[in-house]
Structure formats: structure tokens, C-alpha cells
Amino acid sequence: MDVRTKLNSAANIIRNYENPKLLDENSSEKVSYRVADDRESYAQRQWRRAHVLAEEWAGKLNLGDRISFYDSIDDVPDSKNFSRQQKRNKGWYDPETDKIVVVYNNHRSPQDVLQTILREGVARYGLRELFGENYDTFLDNVWDAADIDIKEAIAARQASLRAKDTDKRPWYHYRRIATEDYLARLAEDTDFERADRSTSPQHWFNRVKAAFL
To answer: Angle at the Cα of 116 (from 56 to 6), degrees rounded to 5?
Structure first.
């Protein structure tokens, strides 16, 4: 790829990286050139903030070489074989490679990027590291110890997963994935940015163990 192509690609990524609240999507008025310029400048600042925030939290969580950042889904290896849904994914943890992938351009804000890192880095990767080969047993224990409201939420997600899967694997396969999804949402909603020790990732792990084990 030559320099001009790289620059054009970067410009397109920044242009597409827009804050959804910046403009009223229902407005029928044409956007002025000045507003368009302001929007692109804002998008560039958000783009830089997302990169800084991502690198900062990858360091805080000691993810090191476990996490890979890509500007666009097209930069991800083998992305040509991805389904349409997979190409919209913000990020994921792959147990087979033990790697986390984050795609900047599929996010809508720096905070959105941070939530993906917390979800995949703390909940999915972190819990697997913590429990190792006992991870499935841990997920089963979470289900057993959960209250009725949590079980209803997990069961709804389980049913949705099974309905979409043509392979129709054993029921516990979907329940474990649904339970992991629930824990991932807990990590997303935790304010790890506060300096208070009670919001550290390690304390989050301890709270999960205390609540469900």
C-alpha cells in the first residue's frame, strides 16, 4: 500500500468516526461546511482520545501482547472470511489464540472503546486466566448461585443464542455463554476509572467470587 492510499484510508476512518449525539439525525436541514469541518475536527480529537485511552487501559490491566488494536475491520487478519455480523463487532476474545481484538472504527466514542476493553479484557480473558481449566465449572456455579432476576436474564440470552445457532449444541453450552455475557456486562458497567481500590479489577474479581461462589 503506497503512502497516498494509507493517508486516504486514515482520513476515511477519521471521517466515519463520528459522535452520534453531535448532529440531530432527524434534521432535514443540510449541514453547513463549517459544521462539517467542526464535526471532522471533533472526530479527529475523539479518534486520538480513543487511542490514548485504549493504550492506557491495556497497560493498567497488564494485557500486554494479549491485545491487538486495529483501526478498521479490514485490517484484521482473515477479515475477508468474516460474516456481516462479525464485521460489525467492536472487539472479541478468542480462547483458541488467547488474544483480544479491538477494532477502533466499529466504536462510537472513546468510552465505547474502554467498555470493550473492560468487557473482553477483564471479564472474558481475565476470568479465564483466573479459573483456568475450571472456567466452565465457575460459570455453572455462577448460575447456581444467581438470584431469580439474574437467572431470568441469563435464560433469555441463552434462548436467543440457541435460536440463532443452527448446530443446536447441548443446552449447557448456551447457558455458559449467556452467563459469560452477563459477567461481561457487569465489567462494562463497573467504574474502574475511579482511584478507589474497591473499583480495581482485582477487587471486581473478588466481588464476583464472593457473590456467586
So the answer is: 70
